[in-house]
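Hi everyone, sorry if this is the wrong subforum. Our group has a chain we'd like a structural model of before ordering constructs, and none of us has done structure prediction before. Sequence below.
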Amino acid sequence: MTYLRREIDLKFQLGEGDFGAAGVDTVEVTGLRVACNIQKNGDASYSRASLKVYGLTLSTMNKLSTLGKPLVDGRNNTVTVTAGDANGKAVVFSGTITEAWVDGANAPEVSLSVEAYVGLIDALKPLPASSFKGSVDAATIVASIAQQTGRNFENGGVEGVTLTNPNYPGTGRQQLESVARDGGFNLFIDDVTNAVAIWPRDGVRGGQIPLINAQTGLVGFPTHTENGILITSLFNPAIVFGRAVRVESILTPAAGTWSVFAVSHDLESLAPGGAWFTRAQCNVFGMVAIARQ
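Answer:
Right subforum, don't worry. Here is the predicted structure as tokens:
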């Protein structure tokens, strides 16, 4: 049996000036022990990550610490998480740091704790109001706002949805949420692709549909939920929020193609027996509408 070393790489970018407009200072972390929990639930809090990083120098931890530096400073300090092994790595999270502090409670095992969220700068940075006369295609409005926030646009099948004399003031996040609410479709800020994705409430996003079974990493059996199933797999970045998965199981009611409406990654590098799992809550198509993200 071949054992692969599991690795988590981190890239910290410390913004300078308002919203990082004056440039960034980059710190890259590789080859260290990292514990990471990532949640992508599509709720009002947006995707988020909790990290513990071991083995950093004190000077690096002090540099990365946000203690006494409130988020409203708008520096847009970010962290990008890449995970994998010798067979390949994938970006699994990229978001704005809200808190970072040196945790010495278990000294001499000192770590840097980090909390980060996706879309926070979009919630802070004001944009010109998106205002149009007459009937306007809702997807076109989302694409325009996405461009202003520096993101790509992904349309997963929202067609023929028009809004009359729309006017959306506020931050980028507020404007995007308002268009999705008025247009009656799902919206998600995808940190991995740096895109604003939209798709119908009774459908799924396009893209790869991974096969999840015992041979591809399914752990145990799917668990029944009110409107679907909960699955646990060995780490699989192909399981993506808003997209579909195909499940094969001897529990025949759980077998089939499902819509993913919540994803979490529990990962630990350089930790024998550490976590290396992806969990997904899945519903039949159209059962859950993700209105805010």
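For your construct planning: The chain has three domains: 7-123, 126-200, 211-283. The longest strand covers residues 88-103.
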